[in-house]
């Protein structure tokens, strides 16, 4: 890629999160002169205040389970108690270490890191503090932030950002919202020892997931001691001297010392100077892009959560790399994000790829549904109640495996591997020909012989 010397850089990226870093490094590797601007910490949501620290908190919670299970396996274990302060210190050290690795990797790829909040100031121009920089291309990769105005007064409550920075575990927690963040933290905080109440407006948590997973996710949250308030979300939240009051429909109120606002995230576009290049956000607050990640403003592109499409770290990374390769590499390439595996890190966790049963029927597929629901060996040995649920959706006409859904120990790891088979278009016959690894839970996926249900396509049968 040849630079135009009238510009300071070929590319300035706004935001050094997963997507921005991936795009910038790939562009620099392909010869572009790249600067990345970050106002907070390099690493962004995933590394600093999202996936990584959340998973470290999940591990802490999981070890509590392991201590209890150890007794059943013959270990004499003294009474165990979780103390959040040492976890918080170790977590802070680990995110600092990772931030250092990210900075090193950027430098190693030849990307200049500029610390400060960047804003557009007309075409090809970015202002950071006193610096005025020009670039042939600007990439907006500023991610998303927690929504703070979904419910009156909820802006005073903690978000996932603050929960991950807690130094002490609250005794009692209300979680409002039951998407990824709501159920993950409800599950984790309950396992760590807090009394958790989960409020959500649908009849099940995790809207959009397969109904069989949603039912079982609700059951496992309850089994972990989470009090489920299905169909109930506060109309107003009021801060008090200590804690919060949730005002429900019908005049009912609940008091909690700590409330987690898990009502979603919104693209982070404030202060970006979009108006200086004639860009307006869409009605969901996202920067609009076409399939080549171009915004309507010449030379301005966007990837990741700020475009509010598939708001997952691996999607932002894949988008960033595809975009950089298309612009600075020899051959443009497109990206297929049609079938992406995802996981919810509850305990036990959930992993899924492909459409829900309802969606597959709506899409016109006649289905064979294969299911397994069992207590894994590790649990039966100690009389544990935790179950694993596995489900395959198979197109009855073509035999192609359309979806894999699982809730149970190791579900994210298992679904990640099966995602390769689905990407390759595997059929049920190929699953059947695959020998099991024994004894594992994952082997159930290649041992399902008879469908539990055979369903005509909703679209073809005329059902809703
Ligand atoms: P989600 O969109 O997943 O969930 C938001 C929740 O808040 C839903 O339960 C929603 O209810 C509820 N809600 C929204 N507005 C209101 C309201 N006014 N009153 C009551 N309830 C409300 O957002 P999250 O914040 O959980 O996650 C944000 C994004 O981060 C997700 O898109 C996800 O992709 C990503 N993420 C991914 C993770 C992973 O991969 N493991 C982990 C964490 C986050 P309803 O369903 O009724 O609309």
From TrEMBL:
Boundaries of every FAD/NAD(P)-binding domain copy: 10-320
Binding site for FAD: 55, 118
Disulfide cysteine pairs (residue numbers): 46-51
Record domain Pyridine nucleotide-disulphide oxidoreductase dimerisation: where: 340-448
Species whose genome carries this gene: Aquincola agrisoli
Keyword terms of this UniProt record: Disulfide bond, FAD, Flavoprotein, NAD, Nucleotide-binding, Oxidoreductase, Redox-active center
Protein name listed in UniProt: Glutathione-disulfide reductase
Cofactor(s) in the UniProt record: FAD
SUPFAM superfamilies xrefs: FAD/NAD(P)-binding domain, FAD/NAD-linked reductases, dimerisation (C-terminal) domain
This protein's record includes keyword Calcium: no
GO molecular function: flavin adenine dinucleotide binding; glutathione-disulfide reductase (NADPH) activity
Residues binding NAD(+): 177-184, 264, 305
EC annotation from Swiss-Prot or TrEMBL: 1.8.1.7
Cellular component aspect of the GO annotation: cytosol
Highest taxon listed in the record's lineage: Bacteria
GO biological process: cell redox homeostasis; cellular response to oxidative stress; glutathione metabolic process
Note accompanying the cofactor annotation: Binds 1 FAD per subunit.
Catalytic-site annotation from UniProt: 438
């Amino acid at each position: 890629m040849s630079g135009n010397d009238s510009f300071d850089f070929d590319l300035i990226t706004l935001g050094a999160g997963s997507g921005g870093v991936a795009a910038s490094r790939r562009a620099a590797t392909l010869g572009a002169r790249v600067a990345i601007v970050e106002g907070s910490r390099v690493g962004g949501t995933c590394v600093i205040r999202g996936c990584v620290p959340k998973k470290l908190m999940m591990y802490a919670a999981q070890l509590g389970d392991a201590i209890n299970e150890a007794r059943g396996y013959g270990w004499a274990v003294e009474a165990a108690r979780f103390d959040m302060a040492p976890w918080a210190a170790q977590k802070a050290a680990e995110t600092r270490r990772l931030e250092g690795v990210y900075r090193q990797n950027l430098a190693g790829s030849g990307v200049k890191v500029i610390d400060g909040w960047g804003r557009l100031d007309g075409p090809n121009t970015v202002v950071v503090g006193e610096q005025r920089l020009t670039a042939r291309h600007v990439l907006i990769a500023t991610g998303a932030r927690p929504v703070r105005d979904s419910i009156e007064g909820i802006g005073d409550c903690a978000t996932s950002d603050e929960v991950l920075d807690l130094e002490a575990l609250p005794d009692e927690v209300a979680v409002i919202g039951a998407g990824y963040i709501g159920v993950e933290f409800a599950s984790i905080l309950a396992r760590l020892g807090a009394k958790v109440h989960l409020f959500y407006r649908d009849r099940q948590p995790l809207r959009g997931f397969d109904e069989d997973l949603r039912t079982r996710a609700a059951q496992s949250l309850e089994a972990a001691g989470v009090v489920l308030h299905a169909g109930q979300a506060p109309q107003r939240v009021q801060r008090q001297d200590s804690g919060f009051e949730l005002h429900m429909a019908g005049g009912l109120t609940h008091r909690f010392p700590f409330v987690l606002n898990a009502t979603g995230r919104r693209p982070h576009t404030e202060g970006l100077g979009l108006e200086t290049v004639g860009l307006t956000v869409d009605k969901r607050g996202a920067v609009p892009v076409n399939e080549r990640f171009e915004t309507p403003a010449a030379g301005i592109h966007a990837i990741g959560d700020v475009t509010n499409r598939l708001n997952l770290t691996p999607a932002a990374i894949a988008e960033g790399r595809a975009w950089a390769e298309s612009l600075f590499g020899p051959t443009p390439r497109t990206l297929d994000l049609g079938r992406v595996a995802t996981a919810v890190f509850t305990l036990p966790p959930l992993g899924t790829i492909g459409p829900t049963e309802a969606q597959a029927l709506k899409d016109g597929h006649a289905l064979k549904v294969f299911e397994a629901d069992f207590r894994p060996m590790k649990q039966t040995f100690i009389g544990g109640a935790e179950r694993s649920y596995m489900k395959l959706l198979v197109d009855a006409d073509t035999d192609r495996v359309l979806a894999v859904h699982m809730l149970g120990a190791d579900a994210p790891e298992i679904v990640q591997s099966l995602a390769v088979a689905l990407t390759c278009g595997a059929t049920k016959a190929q699953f059947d020909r695959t020998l099991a690894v024994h004894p594992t839970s994952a082997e159930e996926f290649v041992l399902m012989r008879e469908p539990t249900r055979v369903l005509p396509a909703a679209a073809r049968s005329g059902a809703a």
